[in-house]
Structure formats: C-alpha cells, structure tokens
Amino acid sequence: MRDVVFTRSSGWIPNVIREDGELMLMLAAGADANHEPRTFTFPIGEAHLAVIREDLARHLLLWSAVLPLCDAAGTRGRLDEDAAIALLDPVLLSSPADVDALFRRIRWDRSRLVAHDADIALLERGQVYGAMRAATEGSNEKRAQEYHADRRRAERGAVLGPLDAAILRYTGQYLHGATIPRRIPDAVDPARLPQVMRVIATAEQACAGMRIGLDPRRGNRTTDKRDWNRMAATVDAAVRRAYPGLVDDAVRTVSFLMCSEAADRARSTPVDDGEEAADDHAGLGESTRKTALSFTDDKGGEKKWLRDGPRTASAEFWEFVADRSAADNEVFTIEDEEMGEGIQLHFYADSIARITTVRHGEPGSDPQYQVEYSLVDGVGGYRNLVSAFVRGGCAALERHGPWMSDVAEFERARRRRDAR
After folding, report:
1. CA 204, 205, 209, 215 torsion: positive or negative?
2. How far apart are CA 62 and CA 66, in angstroms?
3. Could you read off the pLDDT of 9-51 as tens digits, one per residue?
4. What torsion do the CA atoms of 155, 97, 81, 18 make, to the nearest 10 degrees?
5. What is the Rg, in whole angstroms, of the alpha carbon atoms belonging to the chain?
6. Is the predicted pLDDT of residue 146 greater than 80, yes or no?
7. DSSP secondary structure string, 303-336?
8. Distance in angstroms (rounded) separating the CA atoms of residues 27 and 14
9. What is the DSSP letter of 350?
10. Tell me, what DSSP letter sits at residue 345?
11. d(CA 356, CA 393)
12. Tens digits of per-residue pLDDT, 385-395?
C-alpha cells in the first residue's frame, strides 16, 4: 500500500510517500533500458519530513545531492540506499556552513538548483545554502541549459560578452553549437538587437555574390565543401576585422548562418547549367555543340541525352551522377558515339581521362584510341570540364590541361598533388 504524504506543485521534485507504514522519499531519475523514467525510493524519518515540508531550499538541495546516486544506478542497478540515507541529516538538519562543506565533498547536480533559480554567483563560490534563498518551486529548464552551455564554454576558455551572447541567441546556437543556425530576432534583447543586425549586415556584405553549389558526387543534396569553406573564411575575416572583440563562438555562428542559408538556396534551386546557353549567346555556334550523348557509370547504369530535350546535357549528366554515385560507384563516362570521343571522370582520384578515336575498327582489327589524363580541382573543376566537353568535345578541353598520355607520368603527378 502506497500513499502520498507530501508533494510539491512541480511533479519532478521528490515526493514523500508512506509505503507499508514507512516514510519514503520517492524520485524519478534516469531511464531504464526501454528509455522509461526510473523511480527510486529510500526511507526517511519524521524529522526529515518536517524539514522537507517547510524548507523548499533544503528539499531541493537533497534532490541535487541524491541525483548522482540515481545516475550511478544506471538502467537497472539498485540505488545505494546507505549512501542516500547518509545524506539526509547533513542536508536537512545540519547548519548552513555544514551544508556548504558537504557539497564541497560530494557530487551534486548543479543544473537542478539552477533550474529552480539558485543564485549562480553564490553557487560558483561554494555558498550552496545561501544560493538557494530565492529558490522557487517552478522550474526554468532553459536557465539550466544556458548555465550548462556556459560551463562547457568556460572549460575551453570561452567567455561570452553581451554582444557575443546576443549573436548566439539570434542564431539559436546559444545552447547547442551543433544545431543548424537560423534567424530568431525575438530571442535577442531589443536594446541589443541593432548591434547584432550590424554584425549580420557585415557578414552579408562580405559574401554578397558568393554561392555554395551542390556536389552531385555525394548525392542530390550535398553541398560543395570547398564553396562552403571559401564562404566561411570570407565571412570570418570580414567579421573579425570589423568586430575584433567578438569571441570565436560568435564569429563561427555568423559564418555558419551565412553558409547554411546559401546551402539551402542551392538545394532549392533546380539543377541546371546556364553556361551552355550563355555560350550560345556568346557566338560559339550551333555546330560546336553536342547533339547526342550517352552517360554511363561503373555499375551498368546508362542514360541517353538528345539536344532537342528540355534540359542541357550538363544538367542531365549531373543529375545522373547525383542519383547513381556511391562509395563503390565513382567512375562516370560521357560519350559522343557519332564523333568517337568521350571523357571518363574518376571521382575517387580527382582525375579525368579524355578519349578520342584515332582509327575506327575495320573487319579483323580493333579501333585505336588515344587516352590522356589530367588532374581535377574539386567538383568545380569537374563542372568546367563537363561543360567544355559538351560545348566543343575533346578539342575544347585542351586549355584545361595539362594532359598526359603516359600513365606513369600521370601517376607521379597525382602522388605529388596528394602529398601536398
């Protein structure tokens, strides 16, 4: 038989129950193997109940002191009742000075006290009892989360100034730096918001005109890492130059905001290649353009492109790559059967081969090909090479060299690049 003897308005603060005639403190803490909250109980006396009823501060201090014992029990272990009972008199019945001394010796849960409006400055000075004078039954979990975030930053030497904190609140990264930043002006003190907006404007001006493209080699939504790093470095430098007093956390969150917004724009923009259309207007002429191409990969995938289709060859090819590329599928080919030429992209090696037919096969003989290799600088380099081939075939690739027909020479060049 279990009866509730005393409870507070906040359901998480430990309750006092009577079970089979014995007074017990009951609290929920941790979780079991099924992620359900665990409940722990241990016996208390009438004198302890009297203090718990009348003294909210000591009640909360007891909770803070017992929680680490619950954590130690894990998902299925037993609470160390002897250790829990040993906390009762020192926390509930001893002098304030003795309470402070106890909390200097034991593990305790700071976040619980902070959530219930403990004075943080006094907590930091070890005056735990005094810190609880203004304690409240209501819980402010956001306050506890911010305190925990500040302690993590302090451990690595980062101390936020008012503008730093406001910028992190604006981007939603005050509590968790790994979350995707967004613009939350309502989270900032109105008096501080104009300063924050000036920092954001500096970042926007620094990266105006820059873009972060997609990297089809990694799927349909992955962005180009080089573009991302380039934009982040540009924003970082501009913000540090204009606001040298900002801490790294604040500068990084602004860079992260600019980059993530640019990446979102890239993901929401239809994949197409305007360069080909632009080259038509520039006077390259219809005859230089491919009319039919075949795209293949290393896993037997194939796609045909005809010029009278609705999309450019480059757009169709990169869509094919995004749909098919994988860790074990990193070689893609574009072939113009009519002209007897093509290119083969080796994503695993950041290299490309251009292949031209020197002599077509005759009865009794195989065709003869010329194969030349070149190194490629990231997905941007691949895009340029694909566009050039689509516009003018292998001849148009000449200026994108150097091209090496000797495989050993090419491998030495690749090793030298990778070593750098």
Report:
1. negative
2. 6
3. 877 899 999 998 999 999 988 887 788 888 999 999 999 999 9
4. -120
5. 33
6. yes
7. EEEETTSSS-HHHHHHHHHHHH-BTTB-EEEEEE
8. 4
9. T
10. E
11. 9
12. 999 999 999 99
